[in-house]
Amino acid sequence: MEVEKNTKAVMVYPPNKNIDQPGVFIRTNGRGNAWPIPLGSLHPFYSAKNFEDLSNASYSLISSEKTEITKESIKWEIMVDGGHGAVQFLIMQQNRIPDAIFITHPHHDHTYSIDWIIQSYFRANNRKKKYPLYASRKCFDYILITYPHLKELIEYKELIFGKQTRIDEAPGLSATAFPVYHGKTAPGASMVIFQFDNKTALFTGDVLCPLIRIKDYPSLQNISAVYCDANNRFPWPLTNHWSIVDFDPQTVTRSQNLKKFKNHLKLSEILESHNANNIYFDKSIDDQFINDSLSYSMFDFLKKINPVNVFMVHYSGREDSEQYKQEMFDAEKLVKWTSEEAEKIELDCHFHAPSTGHIFRLI
């Protein structure tokens, strides 16, 4: 099983000896949660010596003429989320402006870099060309509240939940967004699946529970790579993040914290951040979403979609330590523990904890 440790070396997974082979790749621009290392502390998962390892979770889908990606080899680059450290990492790499950006939700640790990117693009194009930004409508509206000065610089492209969208800036690439619940402060939050030829990759963004209609799950089967919120191992839903597993480590039974939270959370509250009259949520809404059937853990969701590779990002582990007195892991321990727990429930996925700069070959 592949385990990526903190290193500045670029790794491509799966390995390929032919460095000149073209393809579509996914690069991890950052893997951290809102504060990977709070000031005054350290964290075993993140390297305090590598500034790029402190970047928030961010990714690039890149079409390149060869595996050794250079500024000249890139045909297009589509960015997914951009918080702290993302631009610095882009400059350190090919120092190239991504052709478009997707925002999964409007929290600062996923949007801080858009001002820098959009202003760079606008100036590079003689202040005449707007920058393509893809997001759900409610997400975009919130972005404009936070960054009102960018309104006239953005070419907004709406992501309609459940509808496949062709990406004009990346020939052959399409995207479909699905709603997720990440608390009341994340309006329009989504996960996004990208498709190129017959290969797919899913980015969950930050999520407490997906709001995917039962009829849409077949389109999520056998995904090549899922870049997945892995904020903590054990349930603490007050963070508005799901956990890797749904049980309490002391009792090894389903978490009472999670059970109480679900019992008090009404479906109307879950849907509030998307508006119940959203076209994705039709009149049969109660038949589509039964609260007991919603996935509040990474494992429960993965069992429904059977992906090949799972790349765990946004790891914190603080609630594991503070609420459950459990160890905060480094990357190697997180992969080992997750793999062992998955084997117990016959969940057949390859788990990874990608370092910043890690590259996955999609095609």
Features:
disordered N terminus; 10 helices; 16 strands; Metallo-beta-lactamase, Chain A; alpha/beta; 363 residues; eight-stranded mixed β-sheet
Q: Which consecutive residue ranges, at least 5 long each, have pLDDT under 50?
A: 1-9
Name of the level-1 CATH class = Alpha Beta
**Overall radius of gyration:** 19 Å
Widest sheet: strand order? 1-16-2-3-4-5-6-7
Q: What sequence of helices (H) and strands (E) makes up the elements? A: EEEEHEHHEHEEEEEEEHHHHEHHEE
- Structural domains: how many: 1
Q: Mind telling me which CATH architecture this is?
A: 4-Layer Sandwich
Strand content: 15-25%
Tally of contiguous helical segments:
10
CATH homologous superfamily assignment: Ribonuclease Z/Hydroxyacylglutathione hydrolase-like
> The CATH topology is what?
Metallo-beta-lactamase, Chain A
Compute the number of strand runs: 16
What is the makeup of the main sheet? 8 strands, mixed
* Share in helix: 10-25%
Distance between the termini: 20 Å
Based on Cα principal axes, name the global outline: globular
Mean pLDDT: 91
What does this structure look like?
- With 363 residues, the protein is of the alpha/beta class.
- It has a single domain (12-37, 45-361), classed as 4-Layer Sandwich (Metallo-beta-lactamase, Chain A).
- It contains ten helices and 16 strands.
- α1 (86-92) links the parallel β4 and β5 (100-102).
- It is globular, with a radius of gyration of 19 Å.
- Mean pLDDT is 91; it is low at 1-9.
